Amino acid sequence: MKEELIDILCRRSFKYTEEPSFKLVSGRMSRFYVNCKPTTLSARGMYLVGHLMFDAIKDSPATAVGGLTFGADPIAVATAFASAIQDQPVNAFSIRKTRKDHGIIRWVEGDVQPGQAVVIIDDVATTGGSTIKAIERARSEGLEVVKSVILVDRQEGGLDNIREHVADVSAIVTRDELMKRWKGLKRGE
User: What's this model's pTM, rounded to 2 decimal places?
Assistant: First the structure.
């Protein structure tokens, strides 16, 4: 499954140039660009991501999985779906970018309650900033963050930064794995 996901990511979500030409959220320029949404919102990509993410969290005490909207949303939903298929249900939740200011004022949407163990996920980590924001907001709602899993680690320090907030951090795919496959595709392999 992982190799197929890497192939789909390389074809739909990964770009590389010799000169830095992609502007990151930080404002820094990069040679690598990863937009996971064309993969995570495709039927086959969603299937693979859901199963691989569930495999990464199934041994944790978590009862729910989610992260900052919108990057984490399709991954959380796919993971919840895969968990139900495997008869080990884990709910999905979403963390807002701006706090809801009406009704019940909260950061988190979904079937989660204070005290529950959760996994914070994200589609891509560069510095880890959005994942850390999600961890902080989940904790402010009383959730116990026990793990964090990133779909694609750009290998630029993000996982180390996230580890300062939660000890158990991992990635499904790394930039090096994407580069290796991308080069193979360029050679026609």
Answer: 0.94
Distance from C-alpha of 170 to C-alpha of 89, rounded to nearest angstrom = 21
Cβ(128)–Cβ(24) below 8 Å: no
Identify the weakest region by mean pLDDT among 13-27, 90-104, 117-131, 151-165. 90-104
pLDDT at 102: 62
Backbone angles phi and psi of 95, in degrees to 5: -110, 125
Supply the CATH classification number for the domain 42-173: 3.40.50.2020
Query: Can you list the alpha helix ranges (DSSP code H) found in 43-157?
Result: 43-57, 73-85, 129-140
pLDDT of residue 138: 97
* Domains of the chain, residue spans: 42-173
Structure tokens at 65: 């999985």
Whole-angstrom distance between the N-terminal and C-terminal Cα of the chain? 18
**Closest by Cα among 154, 160, 159 to 175:** 154
